[in-house]
Amino acid sequence: MADSSPYCSVCRRAIGSTAGPRQARTACRGPPGASTAPRRRGPDTSRKAGRGQRAGSTAFPARFLASPAHPPGPCGIETATEIAEGRPRLSVALVARGELGARLSAGARGHLRQACDRLGITVVEHTEVEAVEAARVLCADGSSLASDATVWTAGFAVGPVAAAGGLEVTENGRIVVDRTMRSVSHPNVYAVGDCAYAIGDNGRPLPMACASAGYTGMRATAAIVGSLTGRKIANTRLEYLGNHISLGRRDGILQTVDDEGRAKPKYVGGRKAARIKADILRMSLWATSHPTFGLPRRKRRLAAAPHASAEKAVA
Fold this sequence. Notes:
Shape: globular
Oligomer: single chain
CATH topology of the domain at 14-152: FAD/NAD(P)-binding domain
């Protein structure tokens, strides 16, 4: 663009999205002419509030891209609500491929919609994003949404290292592990977190999320310590309890799930949920800045390797 301003001279809107594009482009659309009203499939589920539509609003200066997650994930929701609360003069829209908050309970979905209305966020549901340009978002149905900045919240993906190294992996590249987080094909390799395909206590694979990564880490640590010291490996839990979504700094949703991974009817919302989420983040930040906290002070004697003992007996 010839204009040195960081904002497009055509549009002044920012879009936070959980809809997935197949490609991304960076060229500005140039002069006006592209449609800014999407043709939505199904019933009109757009929700608007006056504060998000004020004239003369300034655009969010950073440019990001939007997520292919389906149904729409928490990341796009958290990003849109955080921007809308922190910059109330912005016109913020949240685009979802399916229903917004589809995995939440009915009560939690209602709470989410009320939060979007309160923050002045325009919610566009059942709309798939095909591409992102400098000044607009292109939808699969041929329509477009004007956008001076687009926040693209990406989903999870696993790198090709494990598959290239010969480990047994799933179709999406996750390392198949047993209850001790050991690779089923290479017993000397342990995997934890999002790259591990572990079956939880409910018989279902643990989802790729921080809420389940902690359990896999504790399980692997106990297994490694037990194998090195010859001690019994503790049977720690492998479970996924639910989702925690921030809706700005003073609101949130804590949604628990059952053994089938479905949302339970009850949820925690409002300031209480926001405080819980803030405490978790503070604890995580503190733990990251104090990596040696909690290390065992007591030294344990390593157990002799089985093959070494056999060689000594033969000698």
